[in-house]
Amino acid sequence: MRPDQPCTVALDDDEWQALAVVRTNSAAPPAEPPRLRAASRWIAQLGGFLARTGDGAPGVKTLWQGMQRLRDLT
Fold first, then answer.
1. pTM to 2 decimals?
2. Would you list the domain boundaries of the chain?
C-alpha cells in the first residue's frame, strides 16, 4: 500500500471516522478521510506510540494495540 492513499483502503468508514474524531478532538469527522500515513500514526499513538522526532516507525505490537483500542472506540 502507498502511504499517500486514503485510509479507506485499510479501514471501514466507522473506523476512520471514530479515529479522526478522537485524534482531532472534534465533534464530527472530516468530510475527507485522512491519508493512510496519518491514520497509521494515529492508530499507533492509540497503542502507546509517542511519535517523537527520533522514535522511528511504530512496531507491530504498538499498531496491534492501537487497532484493539480503535475497535473499542468504534
1. 0.92
2. 7-73
